[in-house]
Every structure is written in C-alpha cells, then in structure tokens.
Amino acid sequence: MSRIDQHLNRPVFYLSSFIILLLVLFALVTPEVADVFFTDLQKTIIDNGSWFYVVSVAVILTTILYVGFSRFGEVRLGPDHCKPEYSLPTWLSMLFAAGMGIGLMFFGVAEPVMHFLSPPTATSGTTEAVREAMKMTFFHWGLHAWAIYAIVGLVLAYFSFRLDLPLTLRSALYPIIGDRIYGWPGHIVDIFAVVSTIFGIATSLGLGAAQINSGLNYLFNFDESVTMQIYLMVGIIAIAIVSVATGLDKGIRRLSELNMILAIALLLFILILGPTVFILTAYVQNTGAYLSDIVRNTFNLFVYDKTDWIGGWTIFYWGWWLAWAPLLGCLLRVFLVVEQFASLSLVCWCCQRPLRCCG
C-alpha cells in the first residue's frame, strides 16, 4: 500500500481559501449588496433547482437502503481482519455530536413550533397543524439526512481503505477519470468540498450562537446582539480548536460522550417530569405518520399548492446536509478507524491528522 502525501495540498488550500476570503469580504464590505445577491441567488436555485435537490436526495436514500440490506452490506470497509477501535456508544456519541449537535438542539424544539404557527398546507394553530408539524420535523431530521452523510462516508472509506486512494472526495471519481484525480479535476472536487463544508459549518455556528445568546439573555439578561454572538462564536471556535488539538481520544471523544450524557439527561428530565404517557404515545404516532408518508413527502414539491415553505425548509435542509456531507463523511471514517499496519501514514483530508491502526 502506498503512502499518502502528508504535506499541504497547495492548489486546494490556496484556491479554497481565496474563494472563502473573497465571499467573506464581499459580505463585510457591501452587506446590503451581498444580502440582495444571495437572496436572489437562493430564490433562483429554489425556483429552478428544487426538483434536482429532491431527486438527488431520494436517489441517495434509495442507494443507501439498497446497499445496507443487500449483499453489499456485508462488504468490510477496511481490511478483512480489521476491528473497530471504539465501542458502539462512543461511536454514536461522536457521530451525533459532530453530525447534528447544535442544529438538532436548536431545531428539535424550534421547528415543530414554527411549523405549528406556519404549516405548509394546514391551518395555523389547529390539530392538523400539530400533526403536520411533527411529521415534517421527523422528515427533515430522519433517514434522509443520515443517508447523505452515510453515502459520503462509505465512498471515502471504500476508496481509501480498500483501494488505497487518497481520503478525499476526488477518489470517488477514480472509476470515471482514473489517475486524473491527482490533477486539476481532483483539485476542483476538493476545493468545492472545502468551500461547501466551511459554509455548512458557518450555518450551524451561526444558529448555535444565536441559540446560546438567547438562552443567556433569558437566564442572565445578557445583551442579545450580533456583537455578543460574534464573541460566542469565537469562544466556540476556541473550544473546538482545543478539542481537535488534544486528539480524537482525549478531546473529541470525551466532549462527545459528555454531550451525549447531557442530552440523555435532558431527555430523561423532560420524559419523567413532563406528561410521560402523552410523550410516548405521541412519539409512536409521529413515527408511524413519518414512515407512512415518507415516499410522498420525499417527492412533494408543492407544485399544485404553490408555497415558499419548501424553499425555506426542505430544500434548505437538503442543501445544508449536502454542504456538511464532505466533513461528516470524513469524520465517519475517522470514528470508524480500522486496523492497518502501524508503519502506514494515512492522513485525513480535513484535519490532516494521521489515521492509525487500533492494533
């Protein structure tokens, strides 16, 4: 097995950094123009490309289900003798902390309320609006999101650990363009992945900062402003840097396990002290409603009931998950580190940390 270059990929780093810096400066220097530009761009994409998002995510979900339940589900993503380095609870903790985290805590409460007040088709504030709100929340945070993450993780894992190709998205094109993945075609794919990942993270970070700021304002009367949210984002980034710098075992793993413990504690607190029976029965019914309508909701573009709702919710989510997918696919692969020979040096494309065997 060949070694993968650990040095900085200069074309990808410099060009992606330039594009990100250009967009950030555009928003900072001319915020009004940038707001109009991005608003119009978003509207154009929703009006003309919604069908493409819906079909793409449907194909991804169908593919993942087929791979998982067919004979291909038995294919190991590493050498035949490999064993997972982490237990299932630890892996799930890291997966949820990195994959959903802020978004799930924010929208897990906010989204049903927003749909109840402004549902796509039902009358606001009615029992039907409650049913639709819960069903659509399950839909947006259910199988489709994880399918997008899973397919990128599978691609990265298979091509890097089975075929000894770089742990980057460019490797997925190897069956199509062969060794040209090492040239500019591959660089372009990785640049697109880096840029989309940065703005996917920015979305989550912005939502998280707004949520924390609102909570601090409610509890301690902190100033609720953009300046305070910037301070909070700086603090969150600093904690993330410390977590990454301390390594997967000491930093990311421990923080993820702590996050999962706190989330479970919050869940049990609400379940025990709240209307327990109602919560359990509603959960069962909402799950059934989600599964029974999953095909219709997957392909529902509200063609005959024109509404801006789908652009602000379903298409926004699919774009968000797709933007996150390059990073989460990589993290999925890191979390499932498989046993390799200790002398090898496989390097993750997003964090440049070596992936070693578990021994």
What would the average pLDDT be, to the nearest integer?
82
Low-confidence runs of at least 5 consecutive residues: 1-5, 334-359
Distance between the termini: 18 Å
**Largest sheet descriptor:** 2 strands, antiparallel
Number of separate strands: 2
Count helical runs.
14
Features:
359 residues; mainly alpha; two-stranded antiparallel sheet; 14 helices; 2 strands; 1% strand; cell membrane
Question: How would you describe the overall organization of this protein?
Answer:
The radius of gyration is 22 Å and the shape is globular. The protein is an all-alpha fold. Residues 1-5 and 334-359 have low confidence and may be disordered. The two termini are 18 Å apart. The chain has a domain at 86-142 and 184-321. Strand 1 and strand 2 (354-355) form a beta hairpin. The protein is built from 14 helices and two strands, in the order H-H-H-H-H-H-H-H-H-H-H-H-H-H-E-E. Helix 3 packs across helix 10, helix 3 runs antiparallel to helix 14 (314-335) and helix 6 (143-162) runs parallel beside helix 14. The protein has helices spanning 10-29, 31-69, 88-99, 101-117, 127-140, 143-162, 174-177, 184-220, 226-245, 247-273, 276-292, 294-299, 309-312, 314-335; strands spanning 346-347, 354-355.
Quick recap:
This protein is mainly α. It has a domain at 86-142 and 184-321. Helix content is 72%, strand content 1%.
SSE layout:
Layout (H helix, E strand, L loop, with lengths): L9 H20 L1 H39 L18 H12 L1 H17 L9 H14 L2 H20 L11 H4 L6 H37 L5 H20 L1 H27 L2 H17 L1 H6 L9 H4 L1 H22 L10 E2 L6 E2 L4
Antiparallel strand pairs: 1-2
Helix pairs in contact: 1-2, 1-8, 2-6, 3-10, 3-14, 4-5, 5-11, 6-14, 8-9, 8-14, 9-10
